[in-house]
Automatic annotation (TrEMBL):
Gene designation: cutA
Pfam families according to UniProt: CutA1
Family membership: Belongs to the CutA family.
InterPro entries, A to Z: Ion_tolerance_CutA (IPR004323), N-reg_PII-like_a/b (IPR011322), N-reg_PII/ATP_PRibTrfase_C (IPR015867)
Name of the molecule in the record: Divalent-cation tolerance protein CutA
């Protein structure tokens, strides 16, 4: 199993994205978080929906994932937030070591 992972979540606005980003970094649950404005299209409760959201791309370790997920759930305003963990199978060794050193 991969030691490193990328976690994706979306936030309804910049304020919530910044709050989650700050909490994860301050608690050393992530090494780096990128924010990007996205247009999301989905079916929710039987209705076709579209919304502008902020996508967070969170670089972390598999070890930190449970606490990271719990913190996102605690701070997130959605009833069912998107939280997806993707394994990082390979990467620049120096960068991955920095990720490891940055996460508790």
């Amino acid at each position: 199993m991969a030691e490193y992972c990328l976690v994706m979540t979306t936030c309804p606005n910049q304020q919530e994205a910044d709050q989650i980003t700050a909490a994860l970094l301050q608690q050393q649950l992530a090494a780096c978080i990128q924010q990007q404005a996205v247009s999301s299209h989905y079916v929710w409760q039987g209705k076709l929906e579209q919304s502008s959201e902020i996508l967070l791309l969170i670089k972390t370790t598999r070890h930190c994932y449970p606490a990271l997920q719990a913190e996102i759930c605690k701070l997130h305003s959605y009833d069912t937030p998107e939280i997806i963990q993707l394994p990082i199978e390979a990467g620049f060794a120096d960068y991955l070591q920095w990720v490891k050193d940055s996460c508790r």
